[in-house]
Specification:
Order of helices and strands of chain A: EEEEEEEEEEEE
Number of strands of chain A: 12
Shape of chain B: globular
Number of strands of chain B: 11
Largest sheet of chain A: 6 strands, mixed
Helix content of chain B: under 10%
Largest sheet of chain B: 7 strands, mixed
Number of helices of chain B: 0
Oligomer: heterodimer
Distance between the termini of chain A: 41 Å
Strand content of chain A: over 45%
Largest interface: A-B, 23 and 23 residues
Chain lengths: 114, 115
């Protein structure tokens, strides 16, 4: 079985400050990890993904995430946020050898203040 | 049209009504999904279709009936819904159900309100 825990339901931050959104997962087999973003009144959009190779992955809009197998984490970071980054962020885990269905976390609401 | 489209964007229906949600993907994908998104709850997978065949039904009540006439179109037929069915219904597609299944492309959703 696979599961995802997003440790913070809400993260307030000021514009141009750095931010980290935390994600921990559990799975008994090899995993593939994703971060999605949902802007108000829209569907989810893929931000970045880890399939294999380098543990530091870069995505759209200046976001990056680091896969840490020993800590079973896949935290999302951005060095300087903008007002437009205000959105809901979802971490998802996807295991090989299973049903090939991703499991999504509950989401973290990033609120960027001017 | 590009990506994944959903119609209608908003729907208000009574508990005795029958309505349908439509999803269309223009990406040439083979797998399509219905999700339910309720406030403060994780995204709930409802149905999965791969090459028009239903491969997952996540214990969804029979008042929700999916239909996938081809790999580009997906419908969700609704009848005798309950107020707790009010939510955002998201459609998604992926290249296939294998390793590419984790990379999903979502539509904007249909906001459903059951009165």
């Amino acid at each position: 079985a696979q599961s995802v825990t997003q440790l913070d339901s809400q993260v307030p931050v000021f514009e141009e400050a750095p931010v980290e959104l935390r994600c921990n997962y559990s799975s008994s087999v090899s995993v593939y990890l994703f971060w999605y973003v949902q802007y108000p009144n829209q569907g989810l959009q893929l931000l970045l993904k880890y399939l294999s190779g380098s543990t530091l992955v870069k995505g759209i809009n200046g976001f990056e995430a680091e896969f840490n197998k020993s800590q079973t984490s896949f935290h999302l970071r951005k060095p300087s946020v903008h007002i437009s980054d205000t959105a809901e962020y979802f971490c998802a885990v996807f295991s090989s050898g299973g049903s090939y269905i991703p499991t999504f976390g509950r989401g973290t609401s990033l609120i960027v203040h001017p | 049209e590009t990506g994944v489209t959903q119609t209608p964007r908003h729907l208000v229906m009574g508990m005795t009504n029958k309505k349908s949600l439509k999803c269309e993907q223009h990406l040439g994908h083979n797998a399509m999904y219905w999700y339910k998104q309720s406030a403060k709850k994780p995204l709930e997978l409802m149905f999965v279709y791969n090459f028009k065949e239903q491969t997952e039904n996540n214990s969804v009540p029979s008042r929700f009936s999916p239909e996938c006439p081809n790999s580009s179109h997906l419908f969700l037929h609704l009848h005798t819904l309950q107020p707790e069915d009010s939510a955002l219904y998201l459609c998604a597609s992926s290249q296939d159900r294998g390793l590419a299944g984790g990379e999903q492309y979502f539509g904007p959703g249909t906001r459903l309100t059951v009165t």
